[in-house]
Amino acid sequence: MTRPIHPCLWFDGTASEAARYYCSIFPDARILSENPMVVNFELNGRTFMGLNGGPQFSFTEAISFVITCATQDEIDYYWSHLTANGGREGNCGWLQDKYGLSWQIVPAVLPELLGDPERGPRVMEAFRKMKKFDIEALKNA
Question: What domains lie within the chain, and their CATH numbers?
Answer without folding.
Answer: 1-56 (3.10.180.10), 59-141 (3.10.180.10)
